[in-house]
Amino acid sequence: MALEAAQVEKIAHLARLGIDADAIPDYARNLSAILAFVEQLNRVDTTGVEPLAHPLEATQRLRPDVVTEPNEREKFLRNAPLTEDGLYLVPRVIE
Amino acid sequence: MHQKTLVELSAALGRGEFSSEELTRACLARVAALDGQLNSFITVTGEQALSAARAADRRIQAGEAGTLTGIPFAHKDIFCTEGVRTSCGSRMLDNFVAPYDATVTRRLKDAGAVMIGKTNMDEFAMGSSNETSYYGPVKNPWDTAAVPGGSSGGSAAAVAARLVPVATGTDTGGSIRQPAALCGITGIKPTYGRVSRYGMIAFASSLDQGGPFARTAEDAAVMLAAMAGFDPRDSTSVDRPVDDYRAGLSDSLRGLRIGLPKEYFGAGLDGGVAAVIEAALAEYQRLGATLVDISLPNTALSVPAYYVVAPAECSSNLSRFDGVRYGYRAENPRDLEDLYKRSRGEGFGAEVKRRIMIGTYALSAGYYDAYYLKAQQVRRLIREDFLRAFERVDVIMGPTSPGVAFRLGEKADDPVTMYLSDIYTIAVNLAGLPGMSIPAGFAAGLPVGLQLIGNYFEEGRLLAVGHQYQQVTDWHLRCPQGFA
pLDDT higher for A57 or B462? Predict the structure, then answer.
């Protein structure tokens, strides 16, 4: 499966990844090579095989619905690039 | 002092031959003098280390010390460390100071171990050579023109060069075992769920497991015992007691059935590596083990299955890096979408972007069944191969890596060739089994690792099988020139 430049741009957009225009041919080539490589999976017949999502086939453990973490807002906000009044700042979304 | 194992250092600390502060200063001095050749550390935490060492000395004097108390270690920079930068080898987290400790960090602190720094790694643990790190490649102490393996290459190089007696790593497709093999040391990836993933920055959540590096299996047993155990903060942590790994180390190997998968000895295996593995197997026969030919027929499909499952999980996990709450943020964004795209585009390196895109594609509408579900079906077939094998054998052995350490840059431009260097390790992660690599000799002057694969929760058996071999061989004692 060979990817065209336009497909690479679309995937990059879905993943919200900014890719330089001049790097797109390289990505198209490498991603196509990886996809061609994983095509080998089609050599094996998996009809009726249950997909394995967890190596031990464990299911999600649930905990009691009680508060376990203290509020550490200030501490977490210290890692944010831009904050104001305890809030994260982003460029204006609604004009 | 730096040639002593963890167990020897611990005994010396107990006898008062030297203090943890002196030992820690010696490690820091070696890092300062030698790591310029290796680049194995991203951050050295000298002040915190000395303060932790002094606290350990007080514990030792009070008679409250465990085996790890006062022992310096290096911590892979994927584990969150409160108040210390946790970069994951990425520009994205170059400015990230973790607000909390990973469970592994916490457990090692509680045991009194002394962290001297955070080690270099492939960016977000995605790589097999340590060349994808934002902080530059790590060099192999056996040959500084060669890679140390990856992704935990900094930890492996630091232990091999005797900068620290032990270190932590993580293994998603071989990232503990392969660098252990390429650097000539011991490394173990436990059963999935044995070591908590809480605070261990996620790459592929159904595959990631933390584990230790050491020079000996005995030291690895001490480290793993401290790292392992149930953690309610990790929903995939297994609630099951941790075996006493050290107590079982001397169990006899008489009658041990070793399975040799024919797929691990076929085309693609370097002749020099094959000869070393054959010699190691002969040694095991002398120890009383029997060799059994087995087959793991779906081995060849493990790398393709992995390169669907791991990128799919990575694309989901790494969506949290948005330039808003923490991590790198692009300058002067035009709007919110531009902020996301440029922060991620500039913050992530090429290999991480490739994997995010492969995962995004494999999970996108219309392709999910063809890629992700198909890979998960193949994953079950791979697991069943192992379960069938373990009906006939106690442990599986083979090479850890098809070749010795390759040249820096040799595979950097060809992702698929790089991926295939993990052909013998990846299936173990897909199945969630424990795997270990121990030094077994040299080919072309570079170390060769023997891989041991066990059934679920048989870490103790792997450590014993490794330990017994290390009682009759001295490959694990060999030290790279310039670091003796």
Answer: B462
Minimum distance, in Å, between the CA of residue B355 and any CA atom of chain A:
9
Whether residue A51 and residue B329 make contact (CB cut-off 8 A), yes or no, is no
Convert A17-56 to b/e letters by CB count within 10 Å (16 or more is b). Answer: bbbeeeebeebbebbbebbebbeebeebebeebeebeebb
Is A41 in contact with B375 (Cβ distance < 8 A)?
Answer: yes
Closest to A34 (Cβ–Cβ): which among B239, B416, B432? B416
The shortest CB-CB distance from B415 to any of A33, A41, A75 is to A33
Domain extents in chain B: 6-254+435-477
Quote the mean pLDDT of chain B: 97
How far is the C-alpha of A41 from the C-alpha of A22, rounded, in Å? 32
Chain B interface includes A43 (CB < 8 A): yes
Determine the Cα angle at B434 with ends B431 and B438, to 5°.
130
- Looking at chain A, which residue has its C-alpha nearest residue B434? A55
The Cα–Cα gap between A68 and A61 comes to: 16
Q: Would you mind telling me the total number of residues written for chain A in this entry?
A: 95
Pick one of 3.40.50.300, 3.90.1300.10, 3.40.50.1980, 1.25.40.10 as the CATH number of B6-254+435-477: 3.90.1300.10
Tokens describing residue B151: 């992704």
Q: Contacts of residue B364 in chain A, CB cutoff 8 Å?
A: 11, 14
Q: Cβ–Cβ of B344/A27 closer than 8 Å?
A: no
A31 and B CB contact within 8 Å: yes
Threshold 0.80, pTM exceeds: yes
Percent of chain B with pLDDT over 70: 100
- Write out the H or E segment, with its range, that includes residue A83: strand A83-84
Confidence grade of residue B78 (pLDDT, cut at 50, 70, 90) = very high
